[in-house]
Amino acid sequence: MNYVTHLECAFTGEIVEKGIPHTLSSNGKPLLVKYDLEKIKKEVKRDDIENSSEPGFWKYSPLLPVSNPENKVSLGEVITPLITLKSSLDHLKVPYGNVVVKDESRLPTGSFKARGLGMAVSMAKEFGFKHLAIPTNGNAGSALAAYAARAGLRSTVLCPDNTPVINTSETLAQGADTFLVNGLIGDCGKIINEGKKEIGWFAVSTLKEPYRIEGKKTMGLELAEQLGWNLPDVIFYPTGGGTGLIGMWKAFHELLELGWIDCKLPRMVAVQSTGCAPIVKAWDEDKRHAEFWENAETLASGIRVSSAIGDFLILDAIKESGGFAIAVTDEHITKVCDDIGQKDGFLLSPEGAATFAAYEIAIEKGLVDKNDKTILFNTATGLKYPLPEVTKRLNKEDAFDISKFR
Ligand SMILES: *Cc1c(COP(=O)(O)O)cnc(C)c1O
Q1: Number of H helices, E strands in the chain
Q2: Does 379 contact ligand 1 (Cβ within 6 A)?
Q3: Burial of 181: CB neighbours in 10 Å, binned 0-12, 13-18, 19+
Q4: How far is the CA of 115 from the centre of ligand 1 (A)?
Q5: At 377, which CATH number?
Q6: How far is the CA of 303 from the centre of ligand 1 (A)?
Q7: How far is the CA of 234 from the centre of ligand 1 (A)?
Q8: 351 ligand 1 Cβ < 6 A
Q9: Which of 22, 141, 286, 350 is most buried, by the most CB atoms less than 10 A from its CB?
Q10: What distance in angstroms lies between residue 44's CA and the mean position of ligand 1's atoms?
């Protein structure tokens, strides 16, 4: 059983029934899952959640869409840790404890895509699908591959041919039929769309199926519980399709309605790269929909998304929360990766580093205050990206040379 009542078009409010497969609403917009929160309030207590023995995000099962527990596909999810930045903050003179990274790299397949795809694959299993397909810039593909393999389902993954090699290799290694496409993620999506009729696979593209967002929502639930059923003042989130930002915003509203939190909601900050910033442009121009971003280019491949179908949901959440959208350069991202790795021993992904770069700019411009409790999201492990080469060498035959180590 579950507490889902129905699904609702996020744009028009059109209602569709639960228990059958869905993609987009009749007017081509994302569908959101709705729950009987009154009933949950009566039957589930915060303590039940805190004492749950289910792994990681599965502890929030009453607020999730899977009906039959046997369909929950798990690879040993964990509650991702909150890591307080130390030396890397010195130059900003921010009080210790005010900037904390939620480190999503600890999840299966090394990124937070495990949350969304874990949920989507579990629901696919529930609906009896046999074959799933995805267009991806990397992390979503490997997460789909892993969870589909675990569930005994086939997966087909299409990546732009400039996707980081580690992502395409790990995807292949976890059993997906993996292809490189000489185009962008949108081109991959078109091919997958054609395959729907011909092959009958089910596409789990961002927000084009309704359950990935329910998985990503658990970032917000988990954060609230970790902070003692409280929330920070500001959240910086590396935004591509925006599932995580929209999902957290949904989570916070569900928690408020349940009475499990009664705090002010955080300001939501969407962080993008100057090489691909459609949401930032729309925000600056006060628009509700973003234009397609031509020639998208950034080393933070997870946020190289030219067009987001949930653009209005991202922009609405930012606005409602009193937040903002901000773009950072790849040079700045690289500098932050180096700095935080060297000073705090914490290797961020470029997407995670982008949130810190944005925080620096926001402090400088007075967009956030040094006393604000701030959460940054490190959405993947830095180990998936190109790393610096070691160039210093020692010859074992040479006499020990102390000058080399000073
Ligand atoms: C997919 C991805 C993002 C963007 O996530 P959305 O919730 O779709 O905006 C950010 N960082 C990494 C590492 C990703 O893989």
Answers
A1: 12, 13
A2: yes
A3: middle
A4: 11
A5: 3.40.50.1100
A6: 6
A7: 18
A8: yes
A9: 141
A10: 31
Quick one: average pLDDT of 96-118? 97
Residue 124: partners with Cβ closer than 8 Å, 6 or more residues away: 132, 148, 151, 153, 202, 204
**Distance from the CA of 244 to the center of ligand 1, in angstroms?**
7
Is the minimum distance from the CB of 239 to ligand 1 under 6 angstroms?
yes
Closest ligand 1 atom number to CA of residue 243 = 7
Q: Ligand 1 in contact with 302 (CB < 6 A)? A: yes
Ligand 1: atom nearest CA of 351 is 11
pTM: 0.96
Nearest alpha carbon, ligand 1 atom 14:
302
- CB atoms inside a 10 Å sphere around CB 287: 13
Is 86 a member of any domain? yes
Residue entry with tokens 């009475």:
259
Q: What is the CA radius of gyration of the chain?
A: 21
Token duo for residue 286: 């006060």
Handedness of CA 73, 75, 79, 85 (dihedral sign): negative
3-state secondary structure (DSSP) of residue 276: strand
If one counts the domains in the chain, the total is 1
Residue that is written with structure tokens 């658990």 in the block: 218
Residue 253 in any domain: the answer is yes
Kindly give the number of the ligand 1 atom that is closest to the alpha carbon of 239.
9
Domain, as residue range, for 239: 82-110+212-384
Tokens of 15: 């209602």
Q: Quote the percentage of the chain above a pLDDT of 90.
A: 94
What are the Cα distances from residue 140, in Å, to 67, 207, 266, 311, 363?
24, 13, 27, 19, 32
Indicate which residue's Cα is closest to atom 6 of ligand 1. Answer: 242
Q: Is the C-beta atom of 382 inside 6 A of ligand 1?
A: no
**Over the stretch 26-72, which tens digit does the pLDDT of each residue have?**
999 999 999 999 999 999 999 999 999 999 999 999 999 999 999 99
Residue 243 to residues 5, 109, 233, 237, 331: CA-CA distances in angstroms? 21, 18, 20, 10, 26
Using a 6 Å cutoff on CB, does residue 139 contact ligand 1? yes
Confidence of residue 377 (pLDDT cuts 50, 70, 90): very high
How many angstroms separate the alpha carbon of residue 312 from the centre of ligand 1? 17
Q: Is residue 400 a part of any domain in this protein?
A: no
Q: pLDDT > 70: what percent of the chain?
A: 100
Tell me how far apart the alpha carbons of residues 331 and 246 are, in angstroms, rounded to a whole number: 28
Give the amino acid at 141: G
